[in-house]
Amino acid sequence: MFGKRLKNIREKKKSSDSKWTQEYVADLIGVARSTYTAYENGTKQPPLETVNKIADLFGVSTDWLLGRDSTSSSHDELDEEIKKLLNDPENGIFFKDYLSAPEEKKKQLRDFMKFLLEQEKDRKPGDKQK
After folding, report:
1. Which residues are CB-neighbours of 75 under 8 A, at least 6 positions away?
2. Among 23, 44, 72, 76, which is least packed, fewest CB within 10 Å?
3. Which residue has the higher pLDDT, 104 or 89?
């Protein structure tokens, strides 16, 4: 679970910024590239201090990295995706009352959207909904 999540989150970063290679992340957390590769492949487990560095680097919780929590806490990515949905003119009918809603209602909608996006993130075309 740890290696899969680690690779997934690094590759997401790399898709928008090519510098996020295994070598780059290894340098940032202070390990050799081969050691970091072993973390992603699941053949080696990092010490707790390194898990904390990785979580801080990617803006996720250690519980999520270790598979103890299904919400990544990578809220920046989720918030960006929600903003795109809210600002997409095709979605306007669904969110027409959002801008005039009280802040508490806006927060509830954002939290619900985060939940939905998290549920769907690993789903592939043809998979049944959770």
Report:
1. 59, 114
2. 76
3. 104
